[in-house]
Specification:
Oligomer: heterotetramer
CATH class of the largest domain in chain A: Mainly Alpha
CATH class of one domain in chain D: Mainly Alpha
Largest sheet of chain A: none
CATH superfamily of the largest domain in chain A: NADH-ubiquinone/plastoquinone oxidoreductase chain 6, subunit NuoJ
Radius of gyration of chain D: 17 Å
Shape of chain A: globular
Radius of gyration of chain A: 20 Å
CATH topology of the largest domain in chain A: Four Helix Bundle (Hemerythrin (Met), subunit A)
Strand content of chain A: under 5%
Structural class of chain A: mainly alpha
Distance between the termini of chain A: 56 Å
Distance between the termini of chain D: 54 Å
Helix content of chain A: over 70%
CATH topology of one domain in chain D: Helix Hairpins
Low-confidence stretches of chain A: none
Chains: A mainly alpha (167), B mainly alpha (539), C mainly alpha (664), D mainly alpha (100)
Number of domains of chain A: 2
CATH architecture of one domain in chain D: Orthogonal Bundle
Mean pLDDT of chain A: 86
Structural class of chain D: mainly alpha
Largest sheet of chain D: none
Order of helices and strands of chain A: HHHHHHH
Shape of chain D: elongated
Number of strands of chain A: 0
Number of helices of chain A: 7
Chain lengths: 167, 539, 664, 100
């Protein structure tokens, strides 16, 4: 049952992502991408990571994709002027597929052999996923977390400067 | 106090660079004055080195503090001088104020950067001479390279970029090989119990001949480029011609000495077997270099190029002296290094003087300057004759001892051929002098030339004093060097097999007693060795 | 007094420093000249004192060494700044300082009004100092300072009129040729030092020590090598074949310089050096033969050239070369005393001749200058009949000419005859001695001929100078004529101190005086050539008479050609045009040297520079650089600037890396 | 429970599709979106591993990835706007100034 559900969601995700790549109109691509993100959020829930699912929807599907759609509209880009040469197309697709084959092969061959951690479903349901993440962020990963804020600040400054009228 | 003098001296110019950064870059007078002050201070700081130097073979003014420790590598900040480096250090600190003073007017673009480069160069040169740690030496060796590159590349003549890149790449090729050899040497040393990069550790090392050969070749190549030896010399004329006066002066006076110093300090004592094997080759190159450079110098049209080629010839003499491996020859080689620093430095200054006035260095543009510039003519003549090696001037003492030492050693026939360079040097220097100074003053552009002014005379006076002092009373120089040279010679001879069991010489402090055994078992027959047990002439 | 020997070179040094540094400010010629002359005169006084003291000592103790300060001590090599006084150096001291003082005095008059007056005196003093160092040096190295020092001063003084190209060329030529000789000197020093050191552990270059150890030297072999090297040095300094060509050119210098340096003192340094090391040279019979042959050949060779020159100073220059050849001949046959004796008398009469010619040139120049003419003041074809205008010059000149020609009673006769006799009687060179003697006699004949040709052309006959300026010719001032008179007097009587025993009037003071110096050498000589053939007095008398006859023949030929029958020279030249041309052009030696050495050196240097340096070495260097550049120019194409291509590259890279990782 | 491999295979497929998109499209914004797709594919892997290994560190990492993605979006899009203002195009084939 669960596997079936997974397969359906996965199929939607793959189809949508294919549409991202193949659609001529960037807006369509963007919308397909949002769909993919939603599918991924669903999968996160299945993986007992509700907090991650939430921010996936909020940050990705919400903030970033809105930004992208805005930009597409702002620039008023119509469909792509032309495709790449068939040569490049062929190369790109074959390299991508090669990559897929390789990762697949790796997956088939390798096996998981790491120590299991302490977090399990029971703990998540008892303590709560958000709280666990929060604790971790504010204890073990405090410094990276703080640095993230600087990163974002820099990004904001950068974005503002770059989009000024006169560059 | 004694421990810090060397470090103080070495890093004083660096401090100067930092202060220089805060001087407004349009205040040229202050920039020049301050740089001059720094170099003079450095010179003053270095004077206690001579007065406090105890004449023996030990390293003195030692300072050894741990610096980098990474895995098996342990580098120390290990500095000290012995008789060999003492005078080279003094030469450096002595030449620097003169070089600064020489560019008082010549450089008026980006003065700040220029002065900073000169000071950095001084740090590099002094550091290389005082380092007793191979790794530290290598660092200073490279530090020297960069400011010189900029000095040629930014403040040089028309073809400066080519010259600067040529200089840089030539030197870099050699020094990278040297770095490889240093590391390889360290690994070899580790298996014999060496724990850090101090060169004292490596002197006693008994390497197998094959290893020695390769390492010697790497070191020798690096130094041969710097010397420069035929046929690796072609960067020198270009670098000299394009460099500004101070650059040429320092290049000739000090930088070239790095090569020969490297041979005495590293290549020769570290790899005695390889030295023995390659002596004929290097002596051949040196002799060919002497004759070759003299012949080429003879037909040069550019005064500076001529002097540059004469440097090649002079350094060839130094190499003959060093490789003759007896007290006279090495002594002569060392003296010749100092002499060359003084006289060729002075020659470059002289070329600089006329270049500043006429903006040309072509011999054909001159002629008859003696009439217009009598003081200049006198000084030029003194320096010329010092370069030729007239007795009574410094050039003679070194050249004579080199030839004498060479003749008394296995290099007898090489020396005979090299001696003819003495004739050739007279030919090309006098011919140049005649064409520049003698004859009719027929070029109208030369007719209003001004004679040297007070600053220029002040630059030349110390050099001229040194020319005569070293020519007439070289005893203090020779005496202070002699024990250290004895030691180097001892180290550079193939060691008797017994020594193979002792991998590391225990301590340098014991050296004076241990390096003078009652006989020289390793000396080949018929080789007129230094008389056993007595370093003659040193009571 | 002996202890103060260092004063001798010091005085001229002081003079040099004063005149050199402050001469330009002093300006006053009398002061400058006075200082210069006074300084060398003081040296002369000290030298006299030393001579007196030496005379007062027993002959075998007449050696004194004074160490001033240690100079070069390196390893086993040891050279002090030290002076050696012995009878030989005392003689030389007297000659150098005595003749030197006179020439300084003369120069005050001769150089009057010259632009670089102070410079001239400074150089002259420096020269005297160097020469005195050469003479006094107690070891080869101090001698070598002087040896090169005089070369330097000769360079400076020949190039005194540096605005003339020929002067600059001549100066350079002189220095370089001297330098070739110095090269030989150094090699000789090396060989000797090495031989003594490695074979007997005697590491020395000190003359006294070498003399003490000279019994260890073998006959021939390594000694021949060393002495030959030294002899190369001597040929350079003393203008012998093959290095003689610089001396005639050196006449570009002012005349007092020619008198002092290129006649009286410097050029005799080679002779002095051989005498100084007589105990080494005598042990190398082959070298002795070479010395004798070279000396004889130079004597005749230079004499032939002298017959065809028209420049008054050049004739004297070739005469100097020729006379130096006589001295070397003496050295080569082991007659060291005779050689030094000739050196001394030659210094007197040749200095007098040069100064006399200077006086003539001075007068000529003065006259031509007044008449605004640009005729050559040194060309004898412009002279003639000057004896009336320049009486004092004429008389002194004539005395010296008679002396050099070898007329009995004058100094040159005693010394030259002694040399010829020794050449004949020496036991060293087997049957070669007759040949040496013969060449010497012919050279003497030539000498008499060209010297009298000079006198006749200059002082006799009708005056060929432009009549316009004839009235301006007059005798030189006293400051010029006094040295002439003194030297003329010496040229006359100087020979009596070395009168041969044969004539018996006076004991041969000179030879006795030098005996302690050459005793050892003579002894070695006897050891080598046991069969000291005894010659009868009659033979000696006969040869002496013969040499007088030879001189007279030379004089009479000159008289016939230049006084009695003036068309003869022209007839002669037109009869043998080729021969005349060759002789006039100095046997084309200069051209041969240019062809053999100078030009090949230059073109070889050019070839090395433009061929090897620029094309091959730099070609390899730049070629490497170009190779790298070409390679990177190819690689550059990969950087298309399209993001796609970079992305593709990245992707392919990732795939490759994974592939390597997976399928390794 | 869905096996881990399912997630990984899905992630691989998405990543490959993203790669193909990056390599074949010309529109800079679409390329940008494809990059986001690749990032998400990786995120999925992280979370899947996190779950199967019982360790939250992977999810923390995803958190950071998202932050970086956000920053990247802000700056990247600003760049595109600036570029578009200058060149009237965001076709990557027009961006070829970074030659040599």
């Amino acid at each position: 049952m669960e596997t079936l559900f997974f397969l359906i969601v996965a199929a939607i995700a793959v189809i949508c992502s294919l549409m991202v790549v193949t659609n001529k109109n960037p807006i369509n691509s963007a919308l397909s991408l949002i769909m993919t993100f939603f599918c991924l959020a669903t999968l996160y829930v299945m993986l007992e990571a509700p907090f991650m699912a939430a921010i996936q929807v909020i940050v990705y599907a919400g903030a970033i994709m809105v930004l992208i759609v805005f930009v597409i509209m702002l620039l008023n880009i119509k469909s792509e002027a032309g495709r790449r040469t068939s040569h490049a197309l062929f190369m790109g697709i074959s390299v991508g597929l090669l990559l897929l084959v390789q990762t697949w092969y790796l997956l088939v061959k390798s096996s998981l052999s790491s120590v299991r951690g302490t977090v399990d479903s029971a703990m998540i349901s008892k303590v709560g996923h958000t709280e666990l993440i929060g604790k971790s962020l504010f204890t073990d990963f405090l410094l990276p977390f703080e640095i993230t804020s600087i990163l974002l600040l820099v990004a904001i400054v950068g974005a503002v400067v770059l989009s000024k009228k006169k560059l | 106090m004694n421990e810090v003098i060397l470090s103080l001296m070495t890093f004083l110019p660096l401090l100067g660079v930092f202060i220089l950064l805060f001087i407004p870059s349009n205040n040229h007078g202050l920039l020049r004055g301050f740089t001059l002050l720094v170099t003079v201070l450095t010179f003053l700081v270095s004077i206690p080195l001579v007065t406090g130097f105890v004449t023996n073979a030990d390293y003195q003014f030692l300072l050894n503090i741990p610096w980098i420790k990474a895995g098996p590598f342990k580098m120390n900040y290990n500095v000290g001088i012995d008789g060999i480096s003492l005078w080279l250090v003094m030469l450096t600190t002595f030449i620097m104020p003169i070089a600064i003073l020489s560019t008082w007017k010549a450089v008026d673009q980006r003065v700040k950067g220029y002065m900073a480069c000169l000071l950095l160069l001084e740090v590099g040169m002094l550091g290389a001479f005082v380092s007793l740690d191979l790794f530290l030496f290598y660092i200073f060796w490279e530090v020297m390279l960069i400011p010189m590159y900029f000095i040629i590349g930014i403040w040089g003549g028309k073809n400066r970029i080519y010259a600067a890149v040529k200089f840089f790449i030539y030197t870099m090729v050699g020094s990278l090989l040297m770095l490889v050899a240093i590391i390889a040497l360290y690994f070899k040393g580790m298996s014999a119990g060496v724990t850090d990069f101090s060169i004292l550790n490596f002197f006693g090392l008994n390497l197998d001949p094959v290893t020695q050969t390769w390492m010697f070749l790497a070191f020798a190549l690096a130094f041969a480029i710097k010397v420069p030896m035929f046929p690796l010399h072609t960067w020198l004329p270009d670098a000299h011609t394009e460099a500004p006066t101070a650059g040429s002066v320092i290049l000739a006076a000090v930088l070239l000495k790095m090569g020969t110093y490297g041979y005495v300090r590293f290549a020769m004592p570290l790899f005695p077997n390889a030295l023995e094997r390659f002596t004929p080759l290097i002596a051949t190159l040196a002799v060919v270099g002497i004759i070759y450079a003299s012949l080429v110098a003879m037909v040069q049209e550019d005064v500076k190029k001529l002097v540059a080629y004469s440097s090649v010839a002079h350094l060839g003499f130094v190499m003959i002296g060093l490789f003759s491996l007896n007290q006279m020859g090495v002594q002569g080689g060392m003296l010749q290094m100092l002499n060359h620093g003084v006289s060729t430095g002075a020659l470059f200054l002289i070329v600089g003087f006329i270049y500043e006035r006429r903006h040309t260095r072509l011999i054909t543009d001159f002629g008859g300057l003696s009439k217009q510039m009598p003081i200049f003519a006198t000084i030029f003549m003194i320096v010329t004759f010092s370069s030729i090696g007239l007795p009574g001037t410094n050039g003679f003492v070194g050249e004579f001892l080199v030839l004498l030492g060479g003749f008394e050693s296995k290099l007898r026939w090489y020396t005979v051929v090299a001696s003819s360079g003495v004739i050739l040097s007279a030919v090309y220097m006098l011919w140049m002098f005649q064409r520049v100074m003698f004859g009719k003053l027929d070029n109208p552009k030369n007719q209003n030339l001004k004679d040297l002014d007070a600053r220029e005379i002040a630059i030349m006076l110390p050099l001229i004093f040194m020319i005569f002092f070293m020519g007439l009373y070289p005893k203090p120089f020779i005496d202070k060097m002699a024990p250290a040279i004895d030691k180097v010679i001892q180290q550079s001879r193939i060691r008797p097999a017994v020594a193979a069991t002792i991998p590391v010489q225990p301590s340098m402090q014991m050296a004076p007693q241990s390096v003078k055994p009652a006989g020289n078992p390793a000396v080949p027959e018929g080789h007129p060795a230094v008389p056993a047990g007595k370093p003659a002439g040193h009571p | 007094m002996l202890d103060n020997v260092w004063l001798i070179p010091l005085f001229p040094l002081i003079g040099f420093l004063i005149n050199g540094l402050f001469g330009k400010k002093i300006k006053n010629e009398a002061v400058i000249g006075g200082i210069g002359t006074l300084m060398i005169f003081l040296s002369f006084l000290v030298s006299c004192g030393i001579l007196m003291q030496l005379v007062g000592m027993p002959p075998e103790q007449r050696v004194f060494e004074k160490v001033m300060f240690p100079w070069i001590h390196a390893g086993s090599f040891k050279a002090d700044m030290a002076f050696l006084v012995d009878p030989l150096s005392a003689v030389m001291l007297m000659v150098v300082t005595g003749v030197g003082s006179l020439i300084h005095l003369y120069s005050i008059g001769y150089m009057h009004g010259e632009e670089g007056f102070y410079r001239f005196f400074a150089y002259l003093n420096l020269f005297c100092m160097s020469m005195l160092l050469l003479v006094l040096g107690a070891n080869m190295l101090v001698m070598f300072i002087g040896w090169e020092g005089v070369g330097l001063c000769s360079y400076l003084l020949i190039g005194y009129y540096f605005e003339k190209k020929s002067a600059g060329d001549a100066a350079k030529k002189a220095f370089v040729m001297n330098r070739v000789g110095d090269f030989g000197f150094l090699l000789g020093l090396f060989v000797l030092f090495w031989w003594f050191g490695s074979n007997h552990n005697i590491w020395t270059i000190n003359f006294v020590e070498i003399k003490a150890a000279s019994h260890l030297l073998p006959y021939g072999g390594v000694v021949t090598l060393a002495t030959l090297c030294f002899f190369v040095g001597a040929t350079g300094k003393s203008a012998q074949i093959p290095l003689f060509t610089w001396l005639p050119d050196a006449m570009e210098g002012p005349t007092p310089v020619s008198a002092l340096i290129h006649a009286a003192t410097m050029v005799t340094a080679g002779v002095y050096m051989i005498a100084r090391m007589s105990f080494v040279f005598i042990k190398a019979p082959e070298t002795m033969m070479v010395v004798a042959v070279v000396g004889a050949l130079t004597a005749i060779f230079a004499a032939t050239i002298g017959t065809a020159q028209n420049d008054i100073k050049r004739v004297l220059a070739y005469s100097t070369v020729s006379q130096l050849g006589f001295m070397f001949l003496a050295m080569g046959v082991g007659a060291f005393g005779a050689g030094i004796f000739h050196l001394m008398t030659h210094a007197f009469f040749k200095a007098c001749l040069f100064l006399g010619s200077g006086s003539v040139i001075h007068a000529m120049h003065h006259a031509l200058h007044k008449g605004h003419l640009h005729d050559d003041a040194q060309d004898m074809r412009n002279m003639g009949g000057l004896r009336k205008a320049l009486p004092i010059t004429f008389i002194t000149f004539l005395v010296s000419t008679i002396a050099i020609a070898g007329i009995p009673g004058f100094s040159g006769f005693f010394s030259k005859d002694e040399i010829l006799w020794q050449a004949f009687a020496n036991p060293y060179h087997g049957s070669l001695n007759i040949l040496l003697w013969g060449i010497g006699c012919i050279a003497a004949c030539f000498t008499a001929f060209y010297m009298f040709r000079l006198v006749f052309m200059t002082f006799f006959g009708e005056c060929r100078i432009n009549p316009k300026v004839k009235e301006y010719l007059h005798e030189s001032p006293l400051v010029i004529t006094i040295p002439l008179m003194v030297l003329g007097f010496l040229a006359f009587v100087g020979g009596f101190i070395g009168m041969p025993k044969l004539l018996g009037m006076l004991p041969n003071y000179f030879e006795h005086w030098l005996d302690p110096v050459f005793e050892l050498a003579n002894e070695y000589g006897k050891q080598y050539a046991h069969s000291g053939a005894h010659h009868s007095h009659a033979l000696e008398f006969g040869l002496m008479a013969f040499s007088v006859v030879v001189a007279l023949i030379g004089i009479s030929i000159a008289y016939t050609m230049y006084m009695a029958n003036k068309s003869l020279p022209e007839k002669f030249t037109s009869a043998f045009p080729g021969l005349y041309k060759v002789v006039y052009n100095k046997w084309y030696v200069d051209e041969i040297y240019d062809f053999l050495f100078v030009n090949p050196c230059k073109s070889f240097g050019n070839l090395l520079w433009k061929g090897f340096d620029v094309v091959i070495v730099d070609g390899v260097v730049n070629g490497t650089a170009k190779l790298v550049m070409a390679f990177s120019a190819g690689l550059k194409g990969l950087q298309s600037g399209y993001v796609h291509n970079y992305a593709m590259g990245m992707a392919i890279g990732v795939v490759t890396i994974i592939a390597v990782y997976v399928f390794r | 429970m869905v096996s881990l491999n399912f997630y990984l295979v899905l992630s691989a497929i998405l990543f490959a599709i993203g790669t193909i998109g990056v390599l074949t499209r010309r529109n800079a914004i679409v390329i940008f979106m494809c990059v986001e797709l690749m990032l998400n594919a990786v995120n999925l892997t992280f979370i899947a591993f996190s779950k199967y290994l019982g360790n939250l560190d992977g999810q923390i990492f995803v958190f950071f990835v998202m932050t970086v993605a956000a920053a990247e979006a802000a700056v990247g899009l600003a760049l595109m706007i600036a570029y578009f203002k200058n060149r009237e195009s965001i076709d990557v084939e027009d961006m070829n100034l970074m030659k040599w």
